[in-house]
Sequence to fold (313 residues):
Amino acid sequence: MALAAELAHDARMAPQAVYASPRPPLYKAACQLERPMSINQSLDPAAFHDFEHAGWTSNVSEYEAAFARVTSQAIGPLLDAVDLRNGARMLDVASGPGYVAAAAAARGARAVGVDFSAPMVAHARRSYPTVEFQEGDAEAMSFPDSTFDAVVMNFGMLHLARPERAMTQAARVLKPGGCFAFTVWAKPEEAVGFGIILKAIQSHGNPAVQLPQGPSFFRFSDPAECERTLLEAGFLNVRVTSVPQVWRFSAPDELFDAIYNGGVRIKAILRAQSSEALEAIRTAAREAAKNFIQHGVIELPMPAILASAVKPR
Fold:
């Protein structure tokens, strides 16, 4: 199936309801990704912000090659979650290569994309010259109050140093009655690509790599945490669903290559490994990926968590 057709097919898959339940333990290798949900004095928001910014400044084509085929599958459900309509003014926060803003514009919305990576903004402008893209920070946006009918963020929340501030900012720039929605990855036991890599690191490498301390990568994989944080930011009518997604590869080695080249946090953990450990991790990931071959193609379940809420009138 051609990539464009594949994305169109997967984007039409209906979201399934998620019910809050106790979270099973994550792989120990997620220690650099999983942080306590309470305030932790060891967190360094400025250092983490700079770490993520540096990663996304140098990671444009690599992200597009590695993750676009899977993250694009959530765009349709994300726009549906805010009930996007023709003529609506919509803000795409952490817009990256611009896919969400472009899809919104194709539905007739007046879309604006904002991202803190200047190279990402430049790439989006080249790809979609009729859509407006700006450089800006999700945690301190420059837009006036009550500007947009809808605000969305596709897989950006887990890269923020202060996600609560981003939610508060989304509420501020929304018009009363407007809707905010965001996606994140499901926990690694369900988002199999991450689970394979994290288990391989735990078994064959050093998971205790020193990285700038930031919020949990999987914090909002918990529906209850999505609801709690959105309510604290002043939103109402919180809804959390799951979006089925499939990450497809033509060869078993491509999963390792995608995460080694296209991410930020897990990429940093991988690149800190010794050459011997790295090769063992690659081999383990390759063998695990082979268990997901369907008709000659690697098909890894990579569900997204989709949370939405409404600003009070």
Residues 75 and 100 are 6 Å apart (CA to CA).
